[in-house]
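SAMPLE LOG
Freezer: B-3
Tube label: C17
Construct: single chain, 97 aa
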Amino acid sequence: MMNNLEKIKVSNDCINNICKLVDSDVILSINNNYDLINKNIDLLQSYGIENIDEIFLNKYYIFLKETERLVKGFSKFNIPVLVNIINEDYNTIDEIL
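STRUCTURE (predicted):
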């Protein structure tokens, strides 16, 4: 069932756009892993990341990683400084993960 996409903590516009951008296998993976994705969204928001929709739309694969891997990646840096950098340019998130 593809109705799990509605449960992801991003805007409806974001979901609609990602469905247009990626192939059906990726959509299926996102749908089936919505719990993990929401856990990762919660983690990033707890750090202070603000542009979740934009990151999800352009870097959805980050949200499919195990949460522990995200925590480990962030723990290597000064988190408040890193969050400011990511909030200014979300592309930097690739460099830490």
